[in-house]
Amino acid sequence: MIRALLAALLLTSQAFAADMSVFVRNQRPDGVALELFSRDSEKVWPGGDKVFLIRPGAKKSVPISCEPGEHICWGAWVNGDDSVTVGVGPDNNQPCDTCCFICAEHSTETVDLAQ
User: Fold this and answer.
1) Helices then strands, each counted (H, E), the chain
2) Which CATH number fits the domain 15-113, given the four candidates 2.30.30, 3.30.420, 2.60.40, 2.40.128?
3) Which pLDDT tens digits describe the chain residue by residue (115 residues)?
């Protein structure tokens, strides 16, 4: 009975999350704040009203846990001045054809923030 219950729980559980990395290269002279936004859900990384801060000229790898196949877009802005944006921006409302990727287990996506 217990084995049948455990098997049923395993079969009805949601899909396992994938662990991947986003490698950010900030080639701008300003520090930037960056967030990642799911196009398939309301999920935001890092979440909780936090952002990834990347110093001028710095490179940073940020780990995320996402659903395999999930569409994720990035938005960045000058730290302290969200009127200077790249990607989908701080509110995930700017058009962008080159700032999205698909979640895949054990993969790395590179984001280049050019001047």
Assistant:
1) 1, 9
2) 2.60.40
3) 555 433 443 444 455 789 999 999 999 999 999 999 999 999 999 999 999 999 999 999 999 999 999 999 999 999 999 898 999 999 999 999 899 999 999 999 999 998 7
Residue type (1 letter), 92: N
Tokens (6 digits) for 24: 């950010």
Cis before 29 (ω within 30): no
What is the spatial distance between Cα 56 and Cα 26, in angstroms, rounded to a whole number?
Answer: 6
Q: Which residue has the tokens 């700017």?
A: 94
Looking from the CA of 58 toward its CB, the CA atoms found within 13 Å total: 13
| The pTM of the whole model exceeds 0.70 | yes
